[in-house]
Amino acid sequence: MSKRKFIFKGGGKELVLPVTPDSYQVEKGINVEVVNIHQLGDAILAGYGTLATIKVSCIFPASRYPFSDSSDPDGYIGQLEKWVKKRQKLRFVVGGTGVNIPAVLQSVSYGERDGTNDVYADIILREYRQLKAVKVADTGANSGRPEPESTGRQLPPYTVKAGDCLCAIARKFLGDGSYQMAQKLAAYNFGSRDPNILYAGEVVNFPPTL
Where is the LysM domain (predicted)? Predict the structure, then answer.
């Protein structure tokens, strides 16, 4: 049986892991919130699906082995670090399986262990999902938009939760959930980062005026 290929594609480059990992992990799920209802107790509110997290542990040999003719760990690590720095959108594929996921590299950690100069690496990717702006017809006063939670004062920072997106945050706090507003929030907080990329635990600040 031939070994599976682990392939990363992005920015016109393709990287195939030189040694097939022993295992990999793809974690998917939904947002679940537990609420306490008076006189009834706890209840579960099941939300929408979360973005997948992919974890791969691998080795980049520094010498040629019977199972690998690659001997350039620096080249592999360098390419992965470039993708992280550029926030490059990738396609992660595991040959012979249904794993074919658009993703971004969240982190790459690596080091040597046994004096062979081989490099061991742990790679974490997060699924990338393209958000599409929905155009809403203007039907009059406020166009059906909710009022901002506060006006005339600086809004406090908001800590991102799993499943959040900038459009939803902008709609909740600013009364405008358009993609254009999400782009403004992204530029204010994260510079040139794609507004579709948002991680739980990050802090979103609101400018005095938008």
Answer: 156-206
Is the Cβ–Cβ distance between 196 and 186 less than 8 Å?
no
Domains and CATH numbers, the chain: 6-127 (2.40.30.200), 141-204 (3.10.350)
DSSP string, 77-136: HHHHHHHHHHT-EEEEEETTSS-EEEEEEEEEEEE--SSS--EEEEEEEEE---------
Whether pTM > 0.70 for this model: the answer is no
Tell me the per-residue pLDDT of 7-26, one tens digit each, with 9 for 90 and over: 999 999 999 999 999 999 99
Nearest to 148 by CA among 172, 129, 119: 172
